[in-house]
Design a protein that fits this description.
The protein is about 35% helix and about 15% strand. It is of the alpha/beta class. The strands form 2 sheets. A 6-stranded parallel sheet has the order 3-2-1-4-5-6, sandwiched between helices. A two-stranded parallel ribbon has the order 7-8. Strand 2, helix 4 and strand 3 form a beta-alpha-beta unit. Helix 2 packs parallel to helix 3. InterPro entries: ADH-like_C, GroES-like_sf, NAD(P)-bd_dom_sf.
Length: about 240
């Protein structure tokens, strides 16, 4: 603009009044869904729900472990709940999140800061009398991916990487461990969703009161108060802010 580069995040110019996009990136939605709820399906909620629904294909009656209970982790819990998981274990450094996470289907909580004599993965293995069927890393730390893999059920378990770590970060697994454990590890970009077909399905699930989007919104603010929204997020007082232009 006027000779200056305008920067944006992840190639998404969310706050522009007019945007030119390729038709492949446009999805027509049911006009009955409020924009303040439809916007949640652009990334955060859809990524978490999709990770459980599409990437992992969580089966009914299974056990799920989620590392990190931010909005993405809670969306994974919501997706696992929709898929019929019998047990959903949430792991976080903030014990206050347990009460909130129950609304999203979390049945058990581990405060990772209290795991001193045993690792988080050892604690989960004891809780599940084996391992969890599906483990999700939603923080973006290689050490947590390794912990998630360590408590993923041998033979058929899946470890799903959802969190974004620093570029160049490496994971440490021995080839013997990968071969003999018989479990898999995979990344989940945008929850493994196909936007054209899957986003309308999620919209319908919301309209049918299956997918509970309302509980993801803690504050709604006008665009002129965008800095207030970021302050709420930094203070941990907001799960997700919806910003109106």
């Amino acid at each position: 603009m006027n000779g200056e580069t305008i920067h944006h995040f992840m190639f998404v110019s969310s706050f522009t009044e007019y945007t030119v996009v390729h038709r492949a990136n446009v999805i027509k939605l049911d006009p009955a869904i409020p924009p303040s709820r439809a916007c949640l399906l652009v990334c955060g909620v859809s990524t978490g729900v999709g990770a459980a629904w599409r990437s992992a294909s969580v089966e009914r009656g299974s056990t799920v472990a989620i590392f990190g209970l931010g909005s993405i982790g809670l969306a994974v819990a919501e997706g696992a709940r929709l898929c019929g998981a019998a047990r959903i274990i949430g792991i976080d450094v903030n014990p206050d999140k347990f009460a909130l996470s129950k609304k999203f289907g979390v049945t058990d909580f581990i405060d990772s800061t209290s795991c001193i004599e045993k690792s988080v993965s050892q604690t989960i293995n004891e809780m599940t009398d084996g391992e969890a069927d599906y483990c999700f890393e939603c923080v973006g730390r290689a050490s947590l991916v390794e912990e998630a893999y360590a408590c993923c059920r041998k033979g058929w378990g899946k470890t799903i990487v959802v969190g974004v770590d620093r570029p160049g970060t490496l994971l440490k697994f021995t080839s013997t461990e990968v071969l003999h454990s018989g479990k898999c590890i995979m990344g989940s970009l945008f929850g493994g969703l196909k936007p054209k077909s899957d986003i309308p399905i999620l919209v319908k699930k919301y309209m049918d009161k299956e997918l509970e989007l309302d509980k993801f919104v803690t504050h709604e603010v006008g665009f002129e108060d965008i800095n207030k929204a970021f302050d709420l997020l930094h203070q941990g007082k907001s799960l997700r802010c919806v910003i109106w232009m």
